[in-house]
Amino acid sequence: MADGKPRFKAYEQPAGGWGAAAATAKILLEQSVVAKGSRALLAMNQPGGFKCPSCAFPDAECKKTLDFCENGAKALAFEATKFRVTREFFEKHTVSELMEQSDYWLEMQGRLTEPMRYDAGTDHYVPCDWDSAFALIGSHLRALESPHQAEFYTSGRTPNEAAFLYSIFVREFGTNNFPDCSNMCHEPTSRGLPPAIGVGKGTVILEDFAHAEAIFVMGHNSGTNAPRMMTALVEARKRGVPIVVVNPMPERAFIRFTEPQDIVQMATFGSTPIASEFVHIRIGGDLALLKGIMKVIFEREAQGEKIIDQDFIQQHTVGMDAVRDDALAQAWPEIVRVSGVSEEQIRRCAEIYIRSCATVICYGMGVTQHQQGSKLTQQVANLLFLKGNFGRPGAGISPIRGHSNVQGDRTVGIDEKPSQAYLDRVRDVFGFEPPRAHGHHTVESVAAMQDGTAKVFIGLGGNFVRAVPDTDRSYAAMRKLALTVAITTKLNRGHLVHGRDALILPVIARSEAIRTAAGEQFITIEDSMSNVTASRGVLPPASPDLLPEVEIVCRMARAALPGSKVPWESYIDDYDAIRDKIAEVYPALYSGFSEKIKSPNGFHLDVAPRRLVWLTPNGKANFLLFPGLDVNAPVSDPGMLRLATVRSHDQFNTTIYSFNDRYRGVRDSRMVLFMNVDDRIERGLEPNASITLETISSDGVERRVEGLTVLDYPMPRGSVAGYYPELNPLLPLEYHDKISGTPAAKSIPVRVVGS
Ligand code: SF4
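That is the input. Now the predicted structure with iron/sulfur cluster docked in place:
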């Protein structure tokens, strides 16, 4: 426990290795599940077992005895924990008292055990039986003047079967208001890539890493946010494949990594240097870097070198000329200024790209969470087009998703902007006319709560109010609602910032078995690389009063739509019946679903660009122009710093596993700000000064976070970083990518005010 003064000492060991092994043992001990947890870990990510509830990195095809990472073990331990939040716990604590506690403390209280309803008279949650809970939800939803007054949130932990039924229930109810967690992370991928390559997903599969001749990792801290990806990077390095890492923070795993499953490395304390080129980019400098690399390619092509894959360009693409002219027009001094990267280093990166006949470019939030994140993803595609890096082994674009089924949820209908063709299929398969008007994404749903148009919020998983921007305004908006429903496994702040009426509905967790009248059921998950695999829980549910997400969705639907012709009850027991419906609504992707899913490693969904098929309006891969070099609106404040909000190594989304951040050398506190020493001195601050940070905005709203300790850290000048959700109060709701609605959480303009 902590959150006092941070202890800070640079971490010199390699990432992974014994540190990861020790952290795994420590978390199982802390949650008092050494035996139970170890047994479960043997089944995690294994055929016949369950899928890790944490990130969305795919499982290795060739199975090892252990196929999980340290952060997967933390997610499992927190789920399998011995600790319980019982009715006695809620009797003991008022909601106001619980609000005083840290996110970490709330999580550490353990698993929820039965449905609870908020009692405004006593400010306590009190037990509520399931029937009454569904009746309350039904009455609130049926009482709405319009179905658009309800917001239906989905967290990326939600499996395909529950997400699909949720999408049908909400559309039969009459709205497309589907705020979901991908709106806050890879929505620019889902909205930015389709105009370029025809799909809003990555085209790379895990095997491609074994064939790549060069790998770029942009704006992603893989050692923390997809640790098993390091295995693929270590193997690539051992093959001599150059790896270019682009990041404002010199993340430890890219400097040196010890593969925990490499007995020789573990026995000899050996490690592998990952980044052959570490590009210490300024926050917001990625566009300038990509254009710099393209400029080098076009310059050298013009000087007679045969670099560009002209056959691919002629046959498959349109629009290169405009992109070439724009790149050539960019002046090197400006490219260097905006990117913060030297021309020499950009030329080295270009050389690595040019020499490679098969390049993979991976990216994370460092590319998407900017005011123009969607357009930036298109520039990644532009670069890959130049050497025809699609449709062959070892090549392609790879957005690394952060939550286990966030991509799957979108594939099976969690989409506030559904296509008309999809809605026609829903009508044909389920016999009701779905709403055609686009609904709300996350930022729009908070805005609807603020202006009072939204009355009801239902959260299928997650910790919405803690994940969204502009914390103070979002809390106030949530508290205006008539009803909030939180369907989760553990206690979190989303239960404490609630509507006039509020319900907590506890679910069976990913690692726990689902038994229905028809026997044991399994769910399915689609990972970052479009693999769909089965997940069968192996542990007994944490309490006999938990329900699976599928049953909760079906009973909510029946309560809200008494006259519905959809056979909700039939899906409660038989998940194959749900998968058959998914196959009917998505025949191109899911035909034969129930058969294909029987394969131990699941199956791969079709991703058309892998077959050089472009599902774009013009049937081509499109070079798309992004004028200029800035991904964010310039800010004319001499004291301005660009703030990136990040996860610590002991964190998964808003779940806090401890107050430490091992790889960055921070212990005992999350109230820290990583700053370049010259930026600190320039502001007259002492080392480890305690400061207040303020957002630079013109909307008249004061946004401040106090009590941050400044840590001297190798950040590029003008760039700072700190943890979310603690710094979410600094992120204005309106400060987002206009195309996708994704908050620009990686480039918030701030300044230091007072210490
Ligand atoms: S890499 Fe991601 S999915 Fe795999 S075990 Fe680790 S946290 Fe889980």
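The domain at 85-184+405-585 is CATH 3.40.50.740 (Rossmann fold).
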